[in-house]
Structure formats: C-alpha cells, structure tokens
Specification:
The protein is an alpha/beta fold. The protein has twelve helices and nine strands. The radius of gyration is 21 Å and the shape is globular.
Length: 323
C-alpha cells in the first residue's frame, strides 16, 4: 500500500534520529522512548512515527501528555490524547496533571512545569529518552526571537536535535520537518489533532513571530526564510560547540586568566560560571554577560553586577566571585 509522502517523511526523520541516538550513545537496545504529546499535529505525527519506527530499531515506545489545567476541558483533552496514543500502540501512555506557577511569566512557568512533569514520568516508567515534537518552524521562530533579543551565538544555535539534561536524553527528531508536513501526516493517518487557541493569541510574542514576522519576511525577501534560519542555527551550533569546549577547559576565574582569553571564549566562561553559581539560565541575557566582562576588561572600581536569580557578581582580589 502506498504511504502518504508526509507520513514517509516524518517516519524517515524519526528513524534517522533514533538510529543516531543508538549509534552515538544515549540509547541502547530495548530502551523506552517516551513521546511528549500535547495533542497538536506536531506531537501526534511524532507519536505515530515513533510507534511505527521504534520497534524496528529495537526500542520500546510510550507516551505522556501533560495537562496544565489552564483551559476549560483540559482533562477531557488529555484523555482523548491518551486514547489516540494507546490506539497507535504506545505503551505506557500516561496522563500527568500539573499546577502551573507564575515565575517568569505564563509561558515560562508552563514550560517549567511541563519539563518537570516529563522528567518525573520518565523516571517513574523507566524511560531513557523523551522525544519532543519541535519542527523546523519552531526552530526558525526560536532563532528569530533570540536574534531580536540580541542573544549570543549559542542562543542563536537554536534547539539541539539531541541533548542530555536532568539525567535524561531529549530527542527532537522533527527539526528538519515543516509544520505543514506534520499536519498532512495527521490527516493521512486519520489522527485528530487539537488546535490550541493560544497558538492564535497575539498577546504571546512567539505567536506574533509565527503569524506576523515570518510571513512579513517571506513577503519581503522571498520564500525559504524558515529554512535559512534553521540552517543558520545548525552552522552556529557547530561553531558554538568548539568555543564551548574551549571554555570548559578554563581552570579558574582569575582576572588575569580571563583577560588573556579571546572575548568569545571568555564570555562563554562568564556565562557558564554565572549559571553554575545560580543565575537563572533562561533570564540571563547578553547585557548581563557584557557587564560581567567589564569587571575583567574595563575595571575601574565599579560595583557589583546583579544577575537574574538573586545572584551578585563582583571583583575581589583579582578574581571574580559570585554570592
């Protein structure tokens, strides 16, 4: 039977992602991969592809959906998501209800609650990895948002296809797939995605980028903007990996040692040191790192630098110290 091209595309990219994780560490034969399924087209298409591909790669496949409780009927939607995941053959298929706080704004708070839930469920069911449904469109939006904020090279490198954090492997096998392909795959497989009204709410910056900024760029400079932004992220990621490796080898926060480094390496060292000391990673901006850098390269007795997360950095006895 002929497979719809969109279904074939999603399955192929998922297969490549899982095989890469098997070949280069992170996953072993028989491991459980948990798909994070919101109910949208991206995550549903991913769930269907993982359910199809994982057994052929010697892996087990399950699913989790997180109910944020932020909209009426969210519990019913979570139940329907689990029903679709179970019908796809994903086992276990776990619903998880969270309470969203307020720290950092509604988007950041919901994201933090969601990732906490994914880590908890993965530990509970013994999953080795969580697969996320981020697409090429999400990558392009992320790069454009960070570019507008004046972020550095590492931030502009976007999301990684594979990374380890919180003692868990995170996979994003759809970063080369357009959102239109996931929607077409769901239609071809007779899956019923949920259309989150928040995705049309222009009060959210990402929604304005999706609905206004990217189409305006396409209209002004021609098609292919999203693909170009995603390619730029990949190229920057390669460069950033080299610079980060150099920064990781720095032994101390001595001002003399820091001043002798190339600026791109030194600022990575300063950012990493601040996050390690307790600065809030998602809120630590380029302006904060520049002020840390001035304590090293433009020192004239200035006071401490105040960082997100209640951290203070200052220069004492020719060293940078955090408290």
């Amino acid at each position: 039977m002929r497979i719809d091209p969109s279904v074939a595309e999603v399955r192929r990219t998922v297969r490549d992602g899982l095989r890469n994780a098997l070949d280069h560490g992170g996953l072993g034969a028989g491991d459980l991969v948990l798909v994070a399924v919101s109910g949208g087209a991206d995550s549903l298409a991913l769930a269907a592809a993982v359910a199809w591909v994982a057994p052929k790669c010697g892996l087990r496949a399950g699913a989790v959906t997180v109910d944020h409780g932020l909209q009426p009927g969210s519990a019913d939607r979570a139940r329907l998501v689990i029903e679709q995941c179970t019908a796809l053959g994903l086992e276990p298929a776990v619903p998880f209800e969270v309470t969203v706080g307020r720290s950092g704004g509604p988007e950041a708070a919901a994201r933090e609650a969601r990732y906490d839930a994914l880590v908890a469920v993965a530990a509970e069911v013994g999953a080795s990895a969580v697969a996320l449904g981020h697409t090429l469109d999400d990558q392009a939006e992320t790069v454009l948002l960070r570019l507008a904020r004046g972020s550095g090279g590492r931030s502009l490198a976007g999301m990684r296809p594979q990374e380890t954090a919180r003692s868990l492997l995170w996979l994003r096998p759809l970063l080369a797939v357009r959102r239109a392909a996931t929607e077409a795959a769901c239609a071809a497989l007779d899956l019923q995605p949920w259309h989150d009204p928040h995705n049309l709410d222009r009060r959210y910056t990402r929604v304005r980028v999706r609905l206004d900024a990217l189409p305006a760029l396409e209209a002004a400079v021609g098609p292919g903007v999203a693909e170009a932004l995603a390619r730029t992220a990949e190229q920057l990621r390669d460069d950033a990996d080299v610079l980060d490796a150099m920064a990781d080898s720095v032994p101390s926060l001595s001002v003399d040692d820091l001043a002798a480094m190339p600026r791109s390496v030194r600022r990575r060292v300063l950012r990493s040191a601040a996050v390690t000391a307790g600065a809030t990673d998602g809120e630590l901006a380029a302006v904060h790192v520049v002020e840390l850098d001035r304590l090293v390269t433009d020192w004239h007795g200035q006071g401490a630098v105040f960082l997100p997360g209640g951290l203070v950095a200052e220069r004492r006895c020719d060293r940078l110290q955090f408290r």
